[in-house]
Amino acid sequence: MSRMTRWGRALDPENVLPEYPRPQFVRDNFQILNGTWDFAITDGEPPTTFSTIVVPFSPEAPLSGVNATLEPHQTAWYRRTVTLDYDVAQLVDAGRSIVVNFGAVDQIAHVAINGAERAHHVGGYLPFSVQVHADDLREGAAGREFDIEVRVRDYTDTSHHSRGKQKSKRGGIWYTPQSGIWQTVWLEALPAAHVSSVEYACDVDAGTLTVTPHVADAGTDSAADGALVSVRVSLGGALVADGTVPAGKPLTLTIPDPQLWSPESPTLYDVELELPGADTIGSYTALRSFGMAPDARGVPRLLLNGKPYFHMGVLDQGYWPDGLYTAPSDEAFVWDLEQMKAAGFNMVRKHIKVEPMRFYHHCDRLGLIVWQDMINGGGDSYRFDVITLPVFARYSRRDDTERAYRAFAREDAEGRAQFERELIEMISHLKQVPSIGVWVPFNEGWGQFDSVRITELVRKLDPTRLIDHASGWHDQQVSDMRSLHIYFKAFRMPRNDGTGRALVVSEYGGYLYEVPGTRPEEKKFGYRTLKSAEALLADFTSLHRDQMVPAVSKGLSALVYSQVSDVEGELNGLVSYDRDHVKMPAESVAVVLREVLDEFTKSTRSARGD
Question: For residue 310, what are the β-bridge partners?
């Protein structure tokens, strides 16, 4: 199998992922720090010599130029001298300070500026920032400069830390581990007082948008709410609403003729936030609502903008043969998502991974609802009654006792506390993404614990979205969905459990077809093996016509097909791992999925008496 995608083959190592990495919150002065850094791996001691790495690709990824695995006992070292671009240097001379932003570093990072440690961050999937003070800057041959060093440890699956689908010994549904910097690094020049974040809330029935801006002090990074912030909302370049509000306070604006967001019409409103004379932010949001309620026949259904809406989704692992966790270009993200839209999907389940913010931006603008998984951690819970038995029988066990902690490999109290901290941080980080409609705290029992309490926590943090608390199995009968994974057997509607939740099949399919010439380096894995593209399409068609379409009128409310692309030895993607082959024509897949959606429309319309 090719280790390179077409985007990887075209990569310029000195112009890697140059786009502004946070489209939801744009500041017009920035400097991308991706590209060539000094790099070394040691057994813990500081290196005496360095090679190089292409950031933000992990050392395990071919595009990094390193092709080495960071072992649990080892330390990775990054260093670089940063010379400020002219425009940024001018802002610093005018009194602004510098902040260096890291999209994600896996797993534990220490960051030093000019040899002095400034940050210690635990968790491989979430962003953090480092302040650079004025007296850190010196005059270099090419301008104002400073030194930055990043020291990384990654325990992969030998500790309780979040790790997703990474495994030291890959195979089947477990993939190559990756480590270190894997999302964009960039810097910005911040004024003393600056807009630090913004919260959005909307009422689609009232046609209102509530905007709450926050202001912080660059020197202390502490809240400085109270300063007046101007808010301007526009659509297609035309101003539709504006106002001024003290930072930290909500401003509710009436939106004339509100245009609601949906996959069929992904309307986004531009928002400009200005702290007069100091800072201006470009942002955007959408007017939409997610919910769950019984239809006219009393069948629980998922809702979009107050109306029954079938989530026709696909599982998205977010792995690339050349970049592993890191897409080789922004265009690669777009290609994947456009393929799914063309095939008739209106939703992606982002599986056990938090992507860069540009991924969510493309879902926002293209019109794809996102089910966002939390990242699993804990010990090795791969025991028969936790992982294997529920595949073949509807079996669930409690997850909130000391005995359960042992079964789910969650005995470590600090590991449970870390999961909870990162869950809170993830929701805070992604809460303003319009396309996210569902939070998924746990998957198939991997590191599951206290899911009733965790569901209550997620509900408190974000009451505006739906929750699938235990995707697949070990259902504790809470949240909005009764969530099933169906592999190896035919799907039959289960008996009503009386909980009033919507029934969803949050994973199914996984049909394996190996495109000729794309043989993987490891043992092949899938849930059903087909010998030709024609056989794959035939079985895909019968799966939906014979099993899924009849279930819709009985209450089936969402589907998540496995999966977007092949990943290493797991050859059940709709496209090959290198993205060079689409296994079934998009128009053929769309015809099949349209039958599911049409049945849903027919069922809910007849329930309303239309």
Answer: none
List the beta bridge partners of residue 52: 38
Model confidence pTM above 0.90: yes
Cα diameter, the chain: 76
Contact call for residues 284 and 270 (beta carbons, < 8 A): yes
Q: What angle (nearest 5°) sits at the alpha carbon of residue 443, between those of residues 441 and 447?
A: 80
Q: Supply the pLDDT for residue 1.
A: 46
Please give the full DSSP string across 239-282, using - where no structure is assigned: EEEEEEEETTS-EEEE-SS--B-BTTB---EEEEEEETTTEEEE
Determine the straight-line distance between the first and last CA of the chain, rounded to whole angstroms.
52
- Residue 342 CA to residue 358 CA, distance in Å, equals 20
Label each residue of 280-326 as H, E or C.
Answer: EEEEEECECCEEEEECCCCCEEEEECCEECCEEEEEECCCECCCECC
Q: State how far the alpha carbon of 246 is from the alpha carbons of 24, 159, 199, 211, 250, in Å.
A: 21, 45, 14, 11, 8
| Amino acid 607: pLDDT | 55
Helices (H), 37-172: 86-93
Which residues touch 135 (CB under 8 Å, ≥6 apart)?
A: none
> CA 374 to CA 425: how far, in whole Å?
11
φ, ψ for residue 286, nearest 5 deg: -145, 155
Residue recorded with tokens 């942002």: 283
- The closest alpha carbon to 373, from 289, 458, 292, belongs to 458
What is the C-alpha separation between 321 and 522, in angstroms, rounded?
13
Please return the burial class of 493, using the count of CB atoms within 10 Å of its CB with bins 0-12, 13-18 and 19+: middle
DSSP-derived 3-state class of residue 11: coil
* CA gap 607, 300 in Å, rounded: 12
Nearest C-alpha neighbor of 13 from the set 66, 78, 79: 66
Q: Residue 149 and residue 116: Cα distance in Å, rounded? A: 9
Strand partners, 387: none
Cα distances from 330 to residues 47, 125, 490, 514, in angstroms, run 33, 18, 38, 27
Q: What is the pLDDT of residue 384?
A: 78
Q: Residue 223: its pLDDT value, please?
A: 62
Task: Give φ, ψ of 335 to 5 degrees.
Answer: -60, -50
What is the predicted pLDDT for the residue at 219? 61
pLDDT at 290: 98
Instruction: Give the separation between CA 123 and CA 183, rounded to whole angstroms.
Output: 13
Nearest Cα neighbor of 179 from 198, 196, 164, 191 is 164
Q: Which residues of the chain have pLDDT under 50?
A: 1
Find out whether 444 and 467 touch, Cβ atoms under 8 Å: no
